[in-house]
Amino acid sequence: MVVTPRTLIRWKRENRSIVALTAWDYASAKVLDEAGVDVLLVGDSLAQVVLGYETTLPLTLDEMLHHAKAVSRGVKRALVVVDLPFLTYQESPQQALRSAGRVLKETGASAVKLEGGYAAVVETVAFLVRAGIPVMGHVGLTPQSVHQLGYRKQGTTKEDESRLSSEVLALQEAGAFSIVLEHLDTTLATTISQKLSIPTIGIGAGNACDGQILVTHDLLGWSDRQPPFAKVYANLQDTITEAVRRYSDDVRGRRNCQ
Ligand code: KIV
Q1: Residues 23-49: pLDDT tens digits?
Q2: What is the reported pTM?
Q3: Disulfide-capable partner of 183 in 109, 125, 204, 235 (CB 3.0 to 4.6 Å)?
Q4: Are 219 and 232 in contact (CB under 8 A)?
């Protein structure tokens, strides 16, 4: 069975939790897909985790397309969602349509994700959905607004709480098929998840969300700095260092060839 945006909405009704992770290349996408991950996000954290930028802001649409194509080639079952990079959708709904259109036409992915829940983003989501493009929303900590928000937890004040509650409803109304809640107060994330008929995918937003996402490199212990909410399930950094040291010793001792 291939996972589609409609599958996720059905799973919310059936109370089946959604498993999501990031992927940026063919080899890892294939392994994650075969391991049964439901949603693979070609997230723009690519900029920091794999390309070494300080923030997600420098990432271009062409860089994203390059990685999204590789991911799609490795996937048979999971829903592939691609982040629209900073300033490839904020200018106007038409700019967003051109960017999202390239994602769907050129990469084989089925959906895009964009950040924010303010009125202009909601209008853009509605415009893309009308054009037949499935859209995942993303509120709470939105890394493309790092210079305004920083990386701190969101939804901790009364004003924030009521703004975010209206934004998620507006995104749902605009036709988003699911919404990422990032580093959000867990009580608020729980209330939002109960109120919406589309699934919430949490990252640092508590266990009551309809699914969870993590950056794969964080989960595997293969990133410079993991966020405080990331549960680490392996230590690939040490495993790789150890393997490379053994290889180096073998080469230097002329023992490498089998
Ligand atoms: O780019 C990203 O990694 C994200 C997270 C929600 C996983 O958007």
Answers
A1: 999 999 999 999 999 999 999 999 999
A2: 0.97
A3: 204
A4: yes
Is residue 61 included in any domain, yes or no? yes
Task: Choose, from 63, 161, 182, 242, the residue flagged as catalytic.
Answer: 182
pLDDT score of 110:
98
Query: In the prediction, which pLDDT does 226 show?
Result: 86
| Residue 132 belongs to domain spanning | 5-252
Q: How far is CA 186 from CA 37, 155, 192, 207, in A?
A: 24, 9, 10, 8
What is the number of structural domains in the chain?
Answer: 1
Distance CA 109, CA 240 (A): 30
Q: 213 CA distance to ligand 1 centroid (A)?
A: 8
Report yes or no: 256 and 244 within 8 Å, Cβ to Cβ.
Answer: no
Contact 217/32 with Cβ under 8 angstroms? Answer: no
Q: Quick one: three-class SS letters along 140-154?
A: ECCHHHHHHHCCCCE
Would you call 182 a catalytic residue per the annotation?
yes
Tokens of 136: 């995942």
Whole-number pLDDT of residue 224: 82
Asked, for residue 257, whether it belongs to a domain, the answer is no
DSSP β-bridge partners for residue 22:
41
Q: Whose CA is nearest to atom 2 of ligand 1?
A: 43
Instruction: Enumerate residue ranges in the chain where pLDDT < 50.
Output: none
Q: Indicate the top mutation candidate among 18, 22, 53, 214 to test ligand 1's pocket, ranked by most ligand atoms within 8 A of CB.
A: 22
User: Which CATH number belongs to the domain containing residue 115 in this structure?
Assistant: 3.20.20.60
